[in-house]
């Protein structure tokens, strides 16, 4: 039996303060949530690491407005309600596994055609199961080298709903 957990939809702007613990994984999750939002989000307690810096660079390349305050361990991101500002972009996730998986999924669900690359180390790591799932829902991938591995071009399925006007 599959259990459902219903999340109450927020219909009015909220003024929440979220402090992220010093974790690259939590930082990247918070950044993804911020870009999925329909508004400006300030993330505090950001751990600036090679992985989070790659994630941030990818968000900038995708056209998101990002203000970085490393000395304050803060990042302010303006989300576009599930929409990616640039329908075409080149991003490089470096060796950031979280960024690789989250951004591949985000791009695979979104609209547009984007090119994703990674470090030599990340190019060896298989992405096949995730990419196969995304293909099953309408995304398509054009691999530059070995199937299921970086680098590749992803054309999104256009399934994300723009929530900025809701």
Features:
8 strands; 166 residues; single chain; 5 helices; alpha/beta; 4-stranded mixed beta sheet
Word description of this protein:
The chain is α/β, with parallel strands linked by helices and 166 residues long. The chain contains five helices and eight strands, in the order E-H-E-H-E-E-E-H-E-H-H-E-E. Helix 1 links the parallel strand 1 and strand 2. Helix 1 runs parallel beside helix 3, helix 2 packs parallel to helix 3 and helix 3 packs parallel to helix 5. The longest helix is centred in the N-terminal third of the chain and has 13 residues. It is globular. The termini are far apart. The model has no long low-confidence stretch (mean pLDDT 91).
Summarize the helices and strands and which ones pair or pack:
Elements lengths: L17 E2 L4 H13 L3 E5 L5 H12 L3 E5 L4 E5 L9 E5 L4 H13 L3 E5 L2 H5 L3 H9 L3 E4 L8 E4 L11
Parallel strand pairs: 1-2, 5-6
Antiparallel strand pairs: 2-4, 3-4, 6-8, 7-8
Distance between the termini: 32 Å
Mean pLDDT: 91
**So what's the overall shape?**
globular
Number of strands: 8
Brief digest:
The chain is α/β, with parallel strands linked by helices.
């Amino acid at each position: 039996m599959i259990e459902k957990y219903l999340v109450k939809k927020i219909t009015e702007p909220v003024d929440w303060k979220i402090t992220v613990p010093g974790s690259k994984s939590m930082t990247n999750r918070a950044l993804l949530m911020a870009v999925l939002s329909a508004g400006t989000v300030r993330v505090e307690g950001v751990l600036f690491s090679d992985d989070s810096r790659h994630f941030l660079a990818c968000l900038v390349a995708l056209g998101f407005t990002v203000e970085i305050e490393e000395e304050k361990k803060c990042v302010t991101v303006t989300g576009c309600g599930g929409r990616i500002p640039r329908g075409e972009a080149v991003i490089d996730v470096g060796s950031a596994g979280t960024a690789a998986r989250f951004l591949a999924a985000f791009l695979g669900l979104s609209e547009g055609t984007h090119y994703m690359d990674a470090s030599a180390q990340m190019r060896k790591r298989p992405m096949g199961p995730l990419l196969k799932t995304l293909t099953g829902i309408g995304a398509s991938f054009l691999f530059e080298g070995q199937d299921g591995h970086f680098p590749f071009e992803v054309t999104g399925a256009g399934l994300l709903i723009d929530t900025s006007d809701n």
